[in-house]
Structure formats: structure tokens, C-alpha cells
Amino acid sequence: MTSDELHAIIATGLPCDHLAVEGDGRHWFATIVSPEFEGKRLIQRHQRVYATLGAKIRTDEVHALSMKTYTPSEWAATPH
Predict the structure, then answer these.
(1) CATH number of 3-77
(2) I want to staple 28 with a disulfide (CB 3.0 to 4.6 A). Which of 19, 23, 52, 54 is the partner?
(3) Among the listed residues 39, 45, 31, the one whose alpha carbon sits nearest the alpha carbon of residue 75
């Protein structure tokens, strides 16, 4: 799995205003900004992202994914 492949999987399954993925092929970090996160708690946001990965998580193709998730308004208010 490459960062481009992981980026494409997430972007295909979740509308993103911003998406950045980095990692070493097994351990990943993503910053994800999506309007779908509006009104959702952190765990619900993470579950939504994991749902886009489906079998890739269950089969250990994506071993670990840590993430920061933002709504567009949260992202606009965050220094980056």
C-alpha cells in the first residue's frame, strides 16, 4: 500500500475538502477535512473513515491509521 493508494481509497469513499496522508506502508497518519463530520463525535468520524477502508483494515493491509479529523469550519479555525 502506498500513500497515493490510501489517499485514493479515502477520497473515493468520503468527500474531503482536504486530505493528507503520510506513512511508511504499514503505519499511517491522515489529516481529513470533510463536511460529513458535521455534528459527529470523534469516534463517529473515525468509524466513518475506517468504513472507507473496509477489508484493508480487517486483512491488515492497512495496519495502523492515526488521524486528525475536522469539519470544514474547524479546519478554517485551525492554524496549519
Answers:
(1) 3.30.300.90
(2) 23
(3) 31
Q: What share of the chain is helix, strand, coil (3-state, %, to 5)?
A: 45, 25, 30
Q: Where in the chain are the domains?
A: 3-77
User: Residue 54 and residue 56: Cα distance in Å, rounded?
Assistant: 6
User: Measured between alpha carbons, how far is 33 from 22 in angstroms, rounded to an integer?
Assistant: 15
**Cα 77–chain centre separation:** 19
| Residue 40 grid coordinates | 459527529
Provide φ and ψ at 55, rounded to 5°.
-65, -25
Per-residue pLDDT band at 25 (split at 50, 70, 90): confident
Task: Report the sign of the C-alpha dihedral through residues 25, 67, 19, 16, in that order.
Answer: positive
User: Is pTM, for the whole model, over 0.90?
Assistant: yes
